[in-house]
Amino acid sequence: MVTQSLRGMTNHGPMHWRGDRNGSLDEPTSQPDGGQFDEALGFKKFNPAFQTLVGRADTLTDSESEMQSLTDFILQVVYPPNPIRNLDNSLTPDQAAGFAQFFQPNTQFTQSCNDCHRLDLNGNRQFGVARPGFFGTMGEINFLTFDPKLPQPLKIPHLRNMYQKVGRFGTGSMDVAGVPLFENRGYPNMGDQMRGFGFLHDGGIDTLFRFLTAFPFSTAASANGFPLGTGGDAMRRQMEEYMMVFDSNMAPIVGQQITPTAGVVASVSPRINLMMARATAGECDLVVKTRLDEGEAGFLFNNAGAFVPDRHGAPSVSFQGLIDMAQDQGLAITFTCAPPGSGVRMALDRNGDGIYDGDSLANHR
User: Fold this and answer.
1) Alpha helix ranges (H) inside 65-172
2) From CA 156, how far away is CA 214, in angstroms rounded?
3) Predicted confidence band of residue 330 (pLDDT cuts 50, 70, 90)
4) Is residue 80 reached through a cis peptide bond, with omega within 30 degrees of 0 on the bond before it?
5) CA dist., res. 30 & res. 34, Å (int)
6) How much is the pTM?
């Protein structure tokens, strides 16, 4: 089994490829956090592994202390932005074509990819969950793996990290009782690999393109599937392109940062305008940091064309006003697209005490 990530587990149901770490025996199963879908209960099922796998003398202490603290922490860890997707969150023509195919009934039993690998940026939002969204799974469990040679339950996996698995190339034929699972394209074994995990639960498939040559995805199984042979390769490449830019918990703009200096403002203004546009769309909180005569200063973009300072009563400043101030005083000024919801803490009130940072600084002078 390929080791799974500890990121992005909240709102995505059972743990392990088999989904065998879950709370279905502890309470009734229902969305968003009942039984099988209770990620906290599922994660706590790993406690025995601290003794049997890690080698501790004992498991972590009961649910009110060590294990609870670890659970509370790890379920806050999310996936980063997709580094391949366009910063404005748009898709290229090929990626858009793959996106459209993702929702077509193009697999065996006339199901779409999305019927199993659910993409819903608002998944469970109606329940008020802290981190809504389904990114390839709702936490459901399938009855069989893709490999009939080793049938077992399989949790439908998320798809946020496909780009991280690239790097393994060359896989021998895969068949069951002489019946091939994939089109025979003559993929030779290419020897030792430097990196790359491969795809599926066991990393047994080297590339997504090869995975998409599986017969259940072809016209042999569905009228809307990929045409057999090379005639379907353009569609397969489009789907592969889309898989590499699959949506993640954070939009691509999150984490982008730029510090305009004298002489380059004109060249970097388009990037800052993009950051303001994506902040207005709700994809990030745009934070500005600089240093004035009285000390460090922060500003938060209000998504309406102005930046709010970290001093109560001080007027908001336009983008051009910030640039003029920086140039007039020879200041470095840094724009950062922070995760949504973190802007007030990062720009205005670092310790969350209700007193803006600039006011706190003035009170201690």
Assistant:
1) 66-74, 93-102, 113-116
2) 17
3) confident
4) no
5) 5
6) 0.88
